[in-house]
């Protein structure tokens, strides 16, 4: 049996995109959250907040500073704590003119 080697496995893994990109809440204030781990998210991108706690709490990236994103929530963020997951959904499909 031939050994593929760790380098081969790494290259195969790199070829595939992540199913979903997830960051974590760093801090929370009423209406806004600071998140890390979403380096590819841009201003205007949509996120889902703490999906295991809330069925449909979403937000939008409104600022980026030193690798952290500020998220404006579209609902009440009471109950969100540091380390809660934030799922990157991508660009908004509808935006104002």
Shape: elongated
Distance between the termini: 61 Å
- Got a strand count? 6
Q: Major sheet, described briefly?
A: 6 strands, antiparallel, barrel
Average pLDDT confidence is 87
Q: Would you tell me the structural class of the helices and strands?
A: mainly beta
Uncertain spans:
none
Determine the fraction of residues in helical runs and give it as a percent range. under 10%
Strands of the widest sheet, in order across it, are 1-2-5-4-3-6
Total of DSSP H or I helical runs spanning 4+ residues: 1
Q: Would you mind describing this structure in some detail?
A:
By secondary structure, the protein is mostly beta strands. Helices cover 9% and strands 41% of the residues. It has one helix spanning 6-14, and strands at residues 21-29, 32-36, 45-49, 58-65, 68-73, 85-91. A 6-stranded antiparallel β-barrel has the order 1-2-5-4-3-6. The longest helix has 9 residues, at 6-14. The N and C termini lie far apart (61 Å). The model has no long low-confidence stretch (mean pLDDT 87).
């Amino acid at each position: 049996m031939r050994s593929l080697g760790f380098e081969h496995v790494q290259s195969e893994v790199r070829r595939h995109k992540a199913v979903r990109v997830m960051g974590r809440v760093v801090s929370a204030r009423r209406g806004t959250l600071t998140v890390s781990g979403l380096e590819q998210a841009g201003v205007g991108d949509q996120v889902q907040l703490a999906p295991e706690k809330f069925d449909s709490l979403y937000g939008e990236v409104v600022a980026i500073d030193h690798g952290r994103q500020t998220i404006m929530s579209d609902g009440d963020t009471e109950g969100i704590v540091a380390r809660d997951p934030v799922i990157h959904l991508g660009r908004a499909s509808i935006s104002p003119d």
